[in-house]
Amino acid sequence: GRGTPQCRRRVFDVRRGPLLAAHVLRLPGARTQLILNAHHLVTDGWSTPIVLRELVHLYNHGATGLPIAPDYADFLRWLARLDRDALHVAWRRRLEGMTEPTLVARGEGTAEHPVATEITVDDALGARLAEAARENGLTVNTFVQGAWSAVLSALVGRGDVVFGTTVSGRPADLARVETMVGLFSNTVPVRMRMDDRPLREVLQDSQREQYDLGDAEHLPLSEIETCSTVRGRTGLFDTLVVFENYPARFGADSADSGDSTHIIGIGNISTTQYPLSLLAPPGDRFRLVVDHDPVVVDGRTAEMVAAALPIVIAEMIEDLDRPAAEFVPDTIEMLPARSIAPRVLRPRVRRTSWTLSRRGWVRFSRPRCYRTTTSSIAVGT
C-alpha cells in the first residue's frame, strides 16, 4: 500500500515511546488496510496473532468476552529463577573447539535498506522436503539450516560454521504463556559441521543438540558468546535463519456475525541488523527469502546464495547418506579475507531494557533480532 514505505522508515524512541503505531488506509471498494508498526520490545511473531485477534474482538464487541491478559512480568520472574551457571555449561559444551567466527560482512553495514530476494521454490520441492523431513525424524527447519550451513561453508571456506536462529522463547511450564504478548523470541547460535559424516547424521545431531539445550536458549546472545573460545570483538556470526512457524490464527471470532469486521489477509515486513539472512515465512506454501545489506554483502554474492539454496535442498532430499561436505556448492565463490579493523560489527554488551507490567517496572535483558516489524492487515466487513 501507499503508506507502507513511510511505515518501514519509522524510528521508535524507546526512551519516550510509544512503541506501537497504527495507520488506517481507506481503499477503493469499501476496503480498509490497517498497518501496525511495532518495536520488537513489545511484541514478537507469536504475539502478533494474539494482538490482531483481540483487536478485532474489541472493535466488534468491546471488552466483553475477553479474558484478563496474563502478566508478562511472570515470564520475567521465570527468567530470573534460571540457573545461569548450568546454562553456561551447556553452551560451553555446544561451542567447544570453535576457533573462528562465521562472518560474511566485508566492511561496515548500515542495515537501513536491506534488499530482499524471493527464491523460486516450486510446490513439488516443498512437498518432497516435508516428506523427507517426516521420514527421517527431522523438521523442515533443520533441513533449511543444513542448506544454509552448506552455503556458509562455501562462502567462508571451512566446514565448521555457526549462524543465528530465532527461537520462540516461550517456556512450556509457564502458565498461560501461549496467550502472553511481549518479547519472548531470542536469537541463539546454531553450529553445524559439514564434514565427512553422512548428512543425515549431521542433521540429526544438530537437531538433537538444539533440543537438548532446553532452558539455555533463554540466555541473551551476548552472554552465550562469552561461553565460546572464540575471542575478538566481532561476535560469533553475522547471518541469521528465521523459520517462522508461530501459529497463524487470524480466523473469525465465534461471536462474530457474517457482517462483522474481520481480517481477510495479512502481510509482514521485518528488518534485522544482520547483513545476510534467510527467512522462511509462514503460509500454505514453502517459501524462502534472502535479505542482504548491499553495503557489506554485494549483490552478486546474494544472487549466488539465492540460486544455490534450492539446488542444495533438492540434493539433500535425494541422498542424505552422502558426506555432508559434498553438499557444499561449488557455484558459490569464497569471500575474500576480511580486513581486521578495530570496530564492532555487532555489540557484545548486554542490552538491558525496562518493561512495565501490572506490578511495576521490571528490568530484563534480551537480544534484538528485529528492529521493527510492520504488519499490513486487510480488513473486511
Description:
This protein has 381 residues and is α+β, with helices and mostly antiparallel strands. Helices cover 29% and strands 23% of the residues. The chain has nine helices and twelve strands. It has helices spanning 4-8, 47-61, 72-80, 84-95, 123-135, 140-156, 199-212, 221-225, 299-318, and strands at residues 20-27, 31-39, 115-119, 160-167, 186-193, 239-243, 262-272, 276-280, 288-292, 352-357, 360-365, 370-380. The strands form three sheets. A six-stranded mixed beta sheet has the order 3-9-8-6-4-5. A four-stranded antiparallel beta sheet has the order 1-2-12-7. A hairpin with a 3-residue loop joins strand 1 and strand 2. Helix 5 crosses helix 9 (299-318). 33% of the residues are buried.
Comma- or semicolon-separated keywords:
globular; alpha+beta; 29% helix; four-stranded antiparallel beta sheet; 381 residues; 12 strands
How is the topology of this model organized?
Elements: H1 4-8, E1 20-27, E2 31-39, H2 47-61, H3 72-80, H4 84-95, E3 115-119, H5 123-135, H6 140-156, E4 160-167, E5 186-193, H7 199-212, H8 221-225, E6 239-243, E7 262-272, E8 276-280, E9 288-292, H9 299-318, E10 352-357, E11 360-365, E12 370-380
Parallel strand pairs: 4-6, 6-8
Antiparallel strand pairs: 1-2, 2-12, 3-9, 4-5, 7-12, 8-9, 10-11
